[in-house]
Each structure stands twice: as structure tokens, then as C-alpha cells.
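Hi support team,

I submitted a single chain yesterday and got back a structure, but I'm not sure I'm reading the C-alpha cell output correctly. Could someone confirm the output below corresponds to the sequence I sent? I've pasted both exactly as they appear in my results page.

Thanks,
R.
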Amino acid sequence: MQELRKDREERRLTTMLYIAAMAVLLALLYATYQNIRTYSSTVAEVRMHGTALSELEGLLSSLQDAETGVRGYQLTKDTAFLEPYRLANRRLRDHLARLGLYQMNATDSLGLEELRRLTGHLGELWRSMVYNNVDAIVGSPSMVYDLRVAKAYMDSVRVVQDRLVGDRIERRDLLLDREREEGVDAPFMLVIYSLLALFATALLFWRLSRTLRFNEQVRLALRSKVKALDHEVTQRARLQNQLQQVLDVSPSGIMAFRSIRDAEGRIIDFEWLSSNRTANGTVGRTDLVGKRLLEEMPENRTHGLFDDYVRTVQEGSPSVKEFQYTGSGLNNWFRHHAVKLDDGFMVMFSDITEQKRAEMINQETDRLELTAQLTRTVAHEVRNPLTNIHLALEQIQDELEGKEEEVGPYFAIVDRNLKRIGTLIKEMLESSRKRELDLAPCRMEDIVDDVIRSVGDRLALREMGHAVAIADELPEVMADCELINLALTNIAVNAVEAMQTGKGFLRFTVALDTDAVVLSISDNGKGISPENLQRLFEPFYSGRPGGLGLGLTTARSILHSHGIHLDVSSIVGEGTTFSLRFPSGTFA
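Hi R., thanks for writing in. Yes, this is the structure output for that exact sequence:
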């Protein structure tokens, strides 16, 4: 602790020295910058005054050249004197324009305005003397008068120019004195800044060197500790790899998680710490370590598993249960066992989907066998009285011969319903009959074509469409083609009956899914509610009026006898999909 306090004091003192040095250096730097800025501004003003003086001299020189040219022309009438006059006029305009850029106060503005006025009068007078008095006689009174007026204007220009030049020279001399004073300050400030920078750098270097020496000693001490830690980490990594190898050969999936808590200590998620090979294969992922459970597999919350895991971590009580997991590409039954592990848990699970399917098939087989026995008993008991009713009806018809108009309609009703009862008994006996499978290689294309031919008339009569999508190079399956056609036709007929006339569309899709061929029959009918979906395959349950409720029961019985798994998914108002999964064991 004492060493830590010394380190903190050292860092605090070094920081304070650094801040103080930086503050002084920045202050000096700012002062130097301001000095150089002022010096540069003074130099610029001196240069501006010098340029303005040059322009004033140039302006006067141009006026004198123009005056000389006009006088020479007036006295000699020689046009050669007009060339310097014209050149002087152009220079005169340029000088006035540039002088306008160098105005620095009101005196400059007033003087320049007066120069413009005087040069303007001179220009007009000279133009008149050159172009309007061409025929004037040399020495005539008018010529003498014009020359005197021009001289008066020139004298006025000289007076104004001398005044402006004197003012500019006076201000320039003042600026030159200030420039000399400021020119000494900047180097002096730079020297002070450099000396302070060297001192601060030396001080900081000394303290830094001392800190580096101390850090080197600490590094040497840490290096030995790091070697020891490396050895320990290597040992732990080897043990972890050995443990992972043991876990990977386990037939059960094994995953370990740690808790992720919010600021109040509540568990909000779990992070994967490890996952063995079986678990990775089950979920189809190998990148889960380091990721969050609810982000990658949010169905754990809806299935209630997340709450079970939280309870296991908080209470330490193991969780053992069987459940069906749907989502994240899974639709399987699992048996899992979760136990607390530090601030997390470890879960071991096994896929019992096939076991559950076998149990469901056995339960359904027992239920169908019981239903078949009941059906045969009821059919037998009903068929004998039904035969007697037929005989009695024929006897009554013979005795009432001649009264067909009165009793004929009633006899027709009785006869029609007797035939209906007979048909139902025949269907019940057919559905309860044990079938021997005549297995043979069947192509999926032929199976789908047979079903479409069986329901084609219904589709055409109700103005419904259909589509077929079959993947290439599908394996043949071993099946009783006649019974498979009966089962699929029952499913397709139910789909047609569930769709609206003129709007229905039946879709057949066949694809290869890893180790199975999946045949899907989809419609866009009214759909099936969840409560009715659970009763869909119960004997004598029908969702439409007049149905006996044995078609889908018979279909599933046939499919299960082939080892074909049947799943149904439906959305009310959108339609229903029957998915038949032909496992690899059924391949030819």
C-alpha cells in the first residue's frame, strides 16, 4: 500500500509539473505570437505607406508629363507631343485607382478626393486645349488664359500632393520607430521560451528517467511472475483440452454458461463458456462461445427455459424436464438436466425426438386399433338392422302399389338416407381395415403427378390453380404407391375444400433436406385455428359439414406405417401446409 501511495504521489507531482510547465510555455508562446503579430502588422503598414508615397510621386510625375505634352503641342502644333500626354493619362488613372487601396484614415480619403477633383479639372481643360482649340493662334489671349488656368490647377495639385506626402512620411517614421522596438522583443521572447522549454524538458526527462528505472525493476519482478503464470495457464489449458475431449465424446450435448447481470444484480442473460461437439451438432452452430443466450436463441425465454436457468443459478436447485424446442432452425424434443456452476450453470441434454415420435406413433396405433375395433363392431351391429330396414321398405312398397304419388317421395328420402348410411359404414370399415404394404421404388415426380390427377377434376370444377416445384436428382423411396396416393389425395382434397372457389391455389414442393426428402402440400385457404389443429387427426373429427372425419386419420395411419413423419403448420386467414418427411431409411 505504501508503494502504491508513493506511485500516486509521484504521478500527481509529475502531472502538476507538466501542467505548470505547459501553462508557462503556452503563456510565453501566446505573448510571442502577439508580439510577432503586432510586428508583422507594423511592417505591413510601413510597406503600405511606402507604396502610397511611390504612387503619389508617380501621380505627380504623370501630371507633369501630361502638362509638358499639352504645352508643347499648344506652342508648336506638333502632334508628337500628344503621345506622352496620352500615356500620362493612362498612368494617371492607374495611380488614382491604386491610391484608393491604400487609404488608412479620413485625411487620406479627403486628400485623395481633392486630388481626383483637381486632376479631373485638369483633364477636361487639357482635352479642350488639345481637341477644341485646334485652330487657336500661338500666343493668342485664349491660349495664354488656358495655360495660366492649367498652371494654377497644377500648383494646387502640388500643394495637395506635398501635404499628403508629408503626412505619409510622418506616419511612416513613427511606424519605423515602433518597428525597431518590436523587432527586438520577438527574438528576446523566443530565447526565453527556448530556455524555459529546455528547462522543463530536462526536468521532465529526469523524472521520466527515474520512473523508467523503477518500471524496469517492476518489469523484471513481473517477468518472473508471468513465467510462473504462463506455466500455470499452460497446465490449465492442457487440462481444459483434456476435459473438452472427454466432453466431446459424450453422446449428450453439454453447455456451460455464466450469468450476465445488470447494475442491480439481476440476471438479464447468460454467456456461453463452452459447448461440446454433440451440442454444436444439435444446434448447427460452432461459434456460440462468448455470445449471449437470448440474443442467439431467444426462444429460450418463450419456452420458459430462461426462467428455469435463473432459478437454478439463484436457488441452486437442479432443473430436469422434457420439452419440445421450436425456433433457431430446431423442432425437436429434448430431455435436459441443468445444475448450478459458480455464477452460472451447466446443462446436459439429449435429443429424444425419435423416441417421442415412436411414442406418439404407438399411442396413435393403439388409439386407431381401438377405434377400428369399435368401428367394426358398430358397423356390424348397424349393417344387420339396416338390411332388415331395406327388406321392410321393399315389402311396404309392394303393399302400397298404386299409391306411388302419395308415398313415393317419402320412400325416396328413406332410400337415399339408407344408401348414405351404407356408404358411411363402408368407409368406416375401409378406414379400420389392416393393410399389408406392397413396397416398391417410387419416384417423387410420379407420386405428385398421381395426386394431381386424383384432384384435378375438383381443381378445374372450382376454378383453382396449382403449381409443382420438384428438386433435381431426388432419390426414389420405398412405398406402397397406391396407399401413398390415397393418403396424399385425402390431404389434397381437404386442402381444396378449405379454399375459396376461383381464388384457391394448391402448391406441391419437393426438396432434399440433409438426410430426408420433404414433400410439402400448401394451400391459401382459411387456415386452421390452434385448438382445431390439435384435433385434426382425431377419428370422426371434421372441420366441414358432411365430412365423416376419417380422411386425415387414414392418411396419417398410412404415412406412419411407412415411417413417414407428418407435420402441419397453419395460419388462420392465410393457409395451411402439410409437410411429409421421407427419412433416409425409406430411400430405395
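A quick pointer for reading it: The mean pLDDT is 79. Let us know if anything else looks off.

Best,
Support desk
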